[in-house]
Write a structure and sequence with these properties.
Helix content: 25-40%
Number of strands: 10
Strand order of the largest sheet: 1-3-4-7-8-9
Distance between the termini: 50 Å
Radius of gyration: 20 Å
Number of domains: 1
Shape: globular
Largest sheet: 6 strands, antiparallel
Protein backbone atom coordinates (compact mmCIF):
# COMPACT_ATOMS: atom_id res chain seq x y z
CA UNK A 1 0.00 0.00 0.00
CA UNK A 2 1.48 3.36 -1.05
CA UNK A 3 0.51 6.73 -2.49
CA UNK A 4 0.36 7.78 -6.10
CA UNK A 5 3.59 8.17 -8.02
CA UNK A 6 2.97 11.92 -8.37
CA UNK A 7 2.52 14.59 -5.72
CA UNK A 8 -0.60 16.55 -4.81
CA UNK A 9 1.11 19.65 -6.19
CA UNK A 10 1.77 17.97 -9.57
CA UNK A 11 -1.81 16.73 -9.84
CA UNK A 12 -3.23 20.10 -8.76
CA UNK A 13 -1.08 21.90 -11.32
CA UNK A 14 -2.14 19.53 -14.13
CA UNK A 15 -5.83 19.78 -13.23
CA UNK A 16 -5.69 23.57 -12.91
CA UNK A 17 -3.88 23.99 -16.23
CA UNK A 18 -6.31 21.72 -18.06
CA UNK A 19 -9.34 23.50 -16.59
CA UNK A 20 -7.82 26.84 -17.54
CA UNK A 21 -7.23 25.78 -21.16
CA UNK A 22 -9.99 23.26 -21.87
CA UNK A 23 -12.69 24.32 -19.41
CA UNK A 24 -14.50 22.76 -16.50
CA UNK A 25 -15.61 19.16 -16.92
CA UNK A 26 -18.78 18.53 -18.95
CA UNK A 27 -19.79 22.19 -19.03
CA UNK A 28 -19.43 24.99 -21.55
CA UNK A 29 -19.09 27.78 -18.98
CA UNK A 30 -15.71 29.50 -18.92
CA UNK A 31 -13.57 29.21 -15.76
CA UNK A 32 -11.69 32.00 -14.00
CA UNK A 33 -8.94 31.43 -11.42
CA UNK A 34 -8.94 34.54 -9.19
CA UNK A 35 -5.35 33.89 -8.13
CA UNK A 36 -4.25 34.39 -11.74
CA UNK A 37 -6.02 37.71 -12.39
CA UNK A 38 -3.41 40.36 -13.08
CA UNK A 39 -3.74 44.11 -12.92
CA UNK A 40 -3.93 44.76 -16.61
CA UNK A 41 -2.16 43.03 -19.47
CA UNK A 42 0.88 43.68 -21.63
CA UNK A 43 -1.40 45.19 -24.23
CA UNK A 44 -2.82 47.67 -21.76
CA UNK A 45 -6.20 45.97 -21.47
CA UNK A 46 -8.15 46.02 -18.24
CA UNK A 47 -11.06 43.71 -19.02
CA UNK A 48 -12.93 42.50 -15.96
CA UNK A 49 -12.96 38.72 -16.06
CA UNK A 50 -15.43 37.95 -13.26
CA UNK A 51 -18.81 36.85 -14.73
CA UNK A 52 -21.77 39.09 -14.00
CA UNK A 53 -23.68 36.01 -12.80
CA UNK A 54 -20.83 34.36 -10.85
CA UNK A 55 -20.65 30.85 -9.40
CA UNK A 56 -17.73 30.12 -7.03
CA UNK A 57 -16.38 26.57 -6.99
CA UNK A 58 -14.08 25.33 -4.21
CA UNK A 59 -11.88 22.37 -5.16
CA UNK A 60 -9.84 20.42 -2.61
CA UNK A 61 -7.15 18.48 -4.46
CA UNK A 62 -6.39 15.01 -3.11
CA UNK A 63 -4.06 12.25 -4.25
CA UNK A 64 -5.07 8.70 -3.38
CA UNK A 65 -3.43 5.86 -1.58
CA UNK A 66 -2.98 2.77 -3.77
CA UNK A 67 -4.25 -0.45 -2.18
CA UNK A 68 -2.82 -3.70 -3.53
CA UNK A 69 -3.83 -6.14 -0.82
CA UNK A 70 -7.08 -8.08 -0.83
CA UNK A 71 -9.07 -8.08 2.39
CA UNK A 72 -12.59 -8.85 3.54
CA UNK A 73 -13.26 -5.08 3.49
CA UNK A 74 -12.50 -4.75 -0.22
CA UNK A 75 -15.77 -3.57 -1.82
CA UNK A 76 -17.61 -5.93 -4.12
CA UNK A 77 -16.74 -5.41 -7.76
CA UNK A 78 -13.39 -3.75 -7.02
CA UNK A 79 -10.16 -5.09 -8.53
CA UNK A 80 -6.58 -4.61 -7.37
CA UNK A 81 -5.21 -2.07 -7.11
CA UNK A 82 -7.96 0.26 -5.99
CA UNK A 83 -7.64 3.80 -4.62
CA UNK A 84 -8.42 5.44 -1.29
CA UNK A 85 -8.77 9.17 -0.65
CA UNK A 86 -8.06 10.11 2.97
CA UNK A 87 -10.14 12.78 4.69
CA UNK A 88 -8.93 15.27 7.28
CA UNK A 89 -11.27 15.02 10.26
CA UNK A 90 -8.94 15.84 13.15
CA UNK A 91 -8.33 19.41 14.29
CA UNK A 92 -8.36 21.47 12.22
CA UNK A 93 -11.34 19.50 10.89
CA UNK A 94 -11.20 20.33 7.19
CA UNK A 95 -14.12 18.08 6.29
CA UNK A 96 -16.41 19.86 8.74
CA UNK A 97 -15.35 23.24 7.34
CA UNK A 98 -16.11 22.08 3.81
CA UNK A 99 -19.50 20.74 4.93
CA UNK A 100 -20.29 24.16 6.42
CA UNK A 101 -19.08 25.87 3.24
CA UNK A 102 -21.32 23.69 1.09
CA UNK A 103 -24.25 24.25 3.46
CA UNK A 104 -23.89 27.99 2.83
CA UNK A 105 -24.86 27.34 -0.80
CA UNK A 106 -21.40 27.09 -2.38
CA UNK A 107 -20.29 24.37 -4.78
CA UNK A 108 -17.55 22.37 -3.03
CA UNK A 109 -15.82 19.15 -4.08
CA UNK A 110 -12.87 16.93 -3.31
CA UNK A 111 -11.08 16.38 -6.62
CA UNK A 112 -9.03 13.17 -6.77
CA UNK A 113 -7.49 11.40 -9.77
CA UNK A 114 -8.96 8.21 -11.19
CA UNK A 115 -5.38 7.03 -11.83
CA UNK A 116 -2.12 6.88 -9.91
CA UNK A 117 0.87 6.53 -12.26
CA UNK A 118 3.08 9.37 -13.51
CA UNK A 119 2.91 8.24 -17.13
CA UNK A 120 -0.89 8.42 -16.93
CA UNK A 121 -0.74 11.95 -15.54
CA UNK A 122 1.64 12.96 -18.34
CA UNK A 123 -0.59 11.46 -21.03
CA UNK A 124 -3.83 12.93 -19.65
CA UNK A 125 -2.20 16.33 -19.16
CA UNK A 126 -0.99 16.42 -22.78
CA UNK A 127 -4.45 15.38 -24.01
CA UNK A 128 -6.20 17.94 -21.74
CA UNK A 129 -8.06 15.07 -20.07
CA UNK A 130 -7.12 15.44 -16.40
CA UNK A 131 -10.50 17.04 -15.49
CA UNK A 132 -12.47 14.15 -17.03
CA UNK A 133 -10.15 11.56 -15.44
CA UNK A 134 -10.96 12.96 -12.00
CA UNK A 135 -13.54 11.94 -9.39
CA UNK A 136 -15.48 14.73 -7.66
CA UNK A 137 -16.95 14.07 -4.20
CA UNK A 138 -18.98 16.79 -2.50
CA UNK A 139 -18.70 16.87 1.30
CA UNK A 140 -22.47 16.33 1.67
CA UNK A 141 -22.29 13.15 -0.41
CA UNK A 142 -19.79 11.83 2.13
CA UNK A 143 -21.71 13.22 5.10
CA UNK A 144 -20.74 14.26 8.64
CA UNK A 145 -17.87 12.30 10.21
CA UNK A 146 -16.36 11.87 13.64
CA UNK A 147 -12.66 12.52 14.29
CA UNK A 148 -11.56 8.94 13.53
CA UNK A 149 -9.73 8.00 10.32
CA UNK A 150 -11.95 7.96 7.25
CA UNK A 151 -11.29 7.26 3.58
CA UNK A 152 -13.29 7.14 0.37
CA UNK A 153 -12.43 4.07 -1.71
CA UNK A 154 -12.94 3.92 -5.48
CA UNK A 155 -11.67 1.84 -8.37
CA UNK A 156 -10.83 2.84 -11.94
CA UNK A 157 -13.61 1.71 -14.25
CA UNK A 158 -16.10 1.24 -11.40
CA UNK A 159 -18.59 4.11 -10.88
CA UNK A 160 -19.28 3.29 -7.23
CA UNK A 161 -17.44 4.52 -4.15
CA UNK A 162 -17.32 3.38 -0.53
CA UNK A 163 -16.72 5.21 2.73
CA UNK A 164 -14.46 3.63 5.35
CA UNK A 165 -13.63 2.98 8.30
CA UNK A 166 -16.79 0.90 8.64
CA UNK A 167 -17.54 0.42 4.96
CA UNK A 168 -20.76 1.53 3.36
CA UNK A 169 -21.54 2.42 -0.21
CA UNK A 170 -21.92 6.10 -1.08
CA UNK A 171 -25.01 7.17 -2.99
CA UNK A 172 -24.62 9.13 -6.21
CA UNK A 173 -22.26 9.40 -9.16
CA UNK A 174 -18.89 11.09 -8.83
CA UNK A 175 -17.60 11.28 -12.40
CA UNK A 176 -16.79 14.46 -14.32
CA UNK A 177 -20.08 14.48 -16.24
CA UNK A 178 -22.12 14.38 -13.03
CA UNK A 179 -20.04 17.17 -11.50
CA UNK A 180 -20.47 19.20 -14.69
CA UNK A 181 -24.25 18.92 -14.35
CA UNK A 182 -24.01 20.36 -10.83
CA UNK A 183 -21.99 23.28 -12.20
CA UNK A 184 -24.49 23.89 -15.01
CA UNK A 185 -27.39 23.85 -12.54
CA UNK A 186 -25.63 26.40 -10.33
CA UNK A 187 -24.87 28.63 -13.34
CA UNK A 188 -28.50 28.61 -14.49
CA UNK A 189 -29.69 29.82 -11.08
CA UNK A 190 -26.85 32.32 -10.42
CA UNK A 191 -27.97 35.86 -9.68
CA UNK A 192 -26.37 38.99 -11.10
CA UNK A 193 -23.79 40.56 -8.78
CA UNK A 194 -21.29 43.39 -8.88
CA UNK A 195 -17.87 41.68 -9.28
CA UNK A 196 -16.17 43.61 -6.49
CA UNK A 197 -19.06 43.15 -4.07
CA UNK A 198 -19.20 39.44 -4.92
CA UNK A 199 -15.47 38.96 -4.23
CA UNK A 200 -15.53 40.91 -0.99
CA UNK A 201 -18.52 38.88 0.19
CA UNK A 202 -16.62 35.67 -0.59
CA UNK A 203 -13.65 36.82 1.50
CA UNK A 204 -15.93 37.85 4.35
CA UNK A 205 -17.76 34.51 4.25
CA UNK A 206 -14.52 32.51 4.37
CA UNK A 207 -13.19 34.65 7.22
CA UNK A 208 -16.34 34.16 9.29
CA UNK A 209 -16.50 30.45 8.51
CA UNK A 210 -12.95 29.89 9.72
CA UNK A 211 -13.31 32.20 12.74
CA UNK A 212 -10.45 34.36 11.59
CA UNK A 213 -9.71 38.03 11.66
CA UNK A 214 -12.52 40.49 11.15
CA UNK A 215 -12.82 41.28 7.43
CA UNK A 216 -11.68 44.76 6.63
CA UNK A 217 -14.17 47.33 5.39
CA UNK A 218 -13.16 47.91 1.80
CA UNK A 219 -15.73 50.55 0.92
CA UNK A 220 -13.18 53.35 1.02
CA UNK A 221 -10.85 51.36 -1.24
CA UNK A 222 -13.45 50.48 -3.84
CA UNK A 223 -14.75 53.94 -4.62
CA UNK A 224 -13.35 55.18 -7.91
CA UNK A 225 -12.23 58.84 -7.73
CA UNK A 226 -14.77 60.82 -9.74
CA UNK A 227 -12.15 63.26 -11.08
CA UNK A 228 -10.17 60.58 -12.94
CA UNK A 229 -10.40 60.32 -16.74
CA UNK A 230 -12.58 57.37 -17.88
CA UNK A 231 -9.60 55.17 -18.80
CA UNK A 232 -7.83 55.73 -15.47
CA UNK A 233 -11.11 55.24 -13.60
CA UNK A 234 -11.59 51.88 -15.33
CA UNK A 235 -8.01 50.89 -14.52
CA UNK A 236 -8.59 51.78 -10.87
CA UNK A 237 -11.77 49.68 -10.76
CA UNK A 238 -10.00 46.70 -12.31
CA UNK A 239 -7.12 47.08 -9.86
CA UNK A 240 -9.58 46.84 -6.98
CA UNK A 241 -11.24 43.76 -8.49
CA UNK A 242 -7.84 42.12 -9.03
CA UNK A 243 -6.91 42.80 -5.40
CA UNK A 244 -10.21 41.41 -4.12
CA UNK A 245 -9.89 38.36 -6.38
CA UNK A 246 -6.42 37.53 -5.08
CA UNK A 247 -7.56 37.98 -1.48
CA UNK A 248 -10.51 35.60 -1.97
CA UNK A 249 -8.22 33.05 -3.63
CA UNK A 250 -5.68 33.41 -0.83
CA UNK A 251 -8.25 32.90 1.92
CA UNK A 252 -9.74 29.89 0.14
CA UNK A 253 -6.31 28.27 -0.12
CA UNK A 254 -4.90 29.15 3.30
CA UNK A 255 -8.03 28.84 5.46
CA UNK A 256 -9.84 26.03 3.63
CA UNK A 257 -7.11 24.29 1.64
CA UNK A 258 -9.13 24.82 -1.54
CA UNK A 259 -8.43 26.26 -4.97
CA UNK A 260 -11.09 28.81 -5.92
CA UNK A 261 -12.53 28.70 -9.42
CA UNK A 262 -15.23 31.07 -10.63
CA UNK A 263 -17.57 30.42 -13.51
CA UNK A 264 -20.97 31.76 -14.54
CA UNK A 265 -22.87 33.73 -17.14
CA UNK A 266 -21.25 36.84 -18.59
CA UNK A 267 -24.55 38.59 -19.26
Amino acid sequence: MYTSQFSEFSYGYALTDNILHSGLPATATAPVFPSLIAEGSSGGGYDVQIPLHPVPIFLQFKIPQVVWRRSFKMPAGFTKPYLRMHLRTKRPNQHRLLLDLEASGKLVAYATPDFWQTNQLDAYFAAQEVPVRTRYFTPSEIGPLDDKQHQVAYCTGNPTAWLFSEPHKLDGRFDAESFGKKISTAVRSARRQDPLEFLNQLSSMISKLTISRRPRDSRAETASPSHLPPKMKREHEFSEIARAAREAAYLAQVRLGCTLVITGKKQ
